[in-house]
Design a protein that fits this description.
The structure is a homodimer.
Chain A (H helix, E strand, L loop, with lengths): L10 H23 L5 H8 L3 H7 L3 H22 L6 H15 L1 H6 L9 H23 L11 H11 L5 H19 L27
Helix pairs in contact in A: 1-2, 4-7, 5-7, 5-9, 8-9
Chain B binds a DNA duplex through helix 1, helix 2 and helix 3.
Chain lengths: ~210, ~210
DNA sequence: AGCAGAACGGAATGTTCTGTTCCACTGCTA
DNA sequence: TAGCAGTGGAACAGAACATTCCGTTCTGCT
């Protein structure tokens, strides 16, 4: 059976393929705005019925998991992409900008806790942490990052930027960039005094990932 | 009828007065953690029954409103308190630290949208904005704040810090302080380049306050 | 041309969750 | 000591939600 090109527009096959994407896009938008949003909201936003959704995912949790895992993979992808950049500081900055622009942090952090994670997600998360470590280490070695900043502080930075949200998505992105710029200016060079408090410990900001104790 | 001292510990009167505070404290904790939390969670946390709650507030919305308005008043209080500080930069920093420590920003911003605001709250909000303007203006005049930062950028800062949250409240406060310090270091002096994008417009970050259009 | 079934929209269903009310009880207060 | 303000917690009604089901459409293959 020929496929007429897998992403072609014609026929039922194309419709289905387009729905695949529409559902994922809608789910991203809806669940990023409110992680507890009802499934029906996703269907409505995607312009499809409930059955189109349940044909693809056994349940809500599976959709959430998929969304989160996709975000995690994107994270790793971006982190690997900037490793080629020779300027360590620029690599870090570009990476953070990309994560902030794509709203990947919310995807991987705020969605956690709404589903039970796979083992593969666990190992991917470890891999991601390793990449972040290296990125920060390089920036330190280049002397461009203030010394009392640790890799897990980047979690603080991303969490801060992801918190900015206004109804218009494009404006949201602009404001987040502005927030990131303020943080970066504070991160570079040595500030007036040392940063207060113990630095965030590894995994401390990912508490939503911990298995529910109830 | 004598009162034995209005906050005294003895008897039914004292019990009631203590419950007043317990309910407000519990409500703050619960609703800050999740603005959509059920009322029963507040009662449980406060260690009281439902009737103790409904005797004081006609409904959930009234409790939320009260919480938010209290936060707004606290905001104004803190802003007025630092006006006496002669060092403009220190005034701004101390103010931000106090707001972050007391988690007042979440109270006034994240709770909005869960109730319909009073007119008095509207005027208080305007008053608060005016105080922020003056605080930033002073810091600018003293040359301690980078020139392309506007008053509404403080909303960005507070939103960022308020987003940091871990299960332990004290640790949360430490991490927020750290986040604030990074932002302040970036805010002081002129950074590497100008801040990107149009600065946040007045009221742009308070969109939750806008009346629901549905 | 004609059939088998993949894909779909959306209403129906059963269940959980929540705001609010109600009632019997307690122990100050006057 | 009589009365009632104050209370705990169960009961209730209705909203919200994930999931299922059924009738329909239209493609892809023979």
């Amino acid at each position: 059976m020929d496929d007429h090109g897998s992403t072609g527009l014609a026929g039922r096959r194309g419709q289905a393929a387009r729905n695949d994407a529409a559902i994922l896009d809608a789910a991203r938008e809806v669940f990023l705005a409110d992680p507890k949003a009802p499934v029906a909201a996703v269907a409505e936003r995607a312009g499809v019925g409930m059955s189109a959704l349940y044909r693809r995912y056994p349940g809500k949790e599976d959709l959430l998991r998929r969304l989160c895992h996709d975000g995690l993979r994107r994270w790793i992808e971006e982190a690997e992409a900037v490793e080629a950049e020779p300027d360590a500081w620029k690599a870090l900055v570009v990476f953070l900008e990309r994560i902030v622009d794509a709203d990947v942090h919310s995807l991987t952090v705020h969605l956690a806790g709404t589903f039970t994670p796979t083992e593969e997600m666990g190992s991917d998360a470890r891999r991601a942490a390793g990449l972040m470590d290296r990125l920060v280490e390089r920036a330190h070695a280049a002397g461009r990052l203030r010394r009392d900043v640790v890799a897990d502080d980047m979690g603080l930075v991303l969490e801060s930027c992801a918190a900015i949200r206004v109804p218009d998505p494009e404006r949201t992105q602009e404001l987040r960039r502005r927030c990131l710029a303020m943080l970066l200016a504070g991160l570079a060079g040595d500030g007036a005094g040392p940063l207060p408090g113990p630095a965030p410990a590894p995994g401390e900001l990912n508490w939503r990932w911990r298995r529910r104790s109830g």
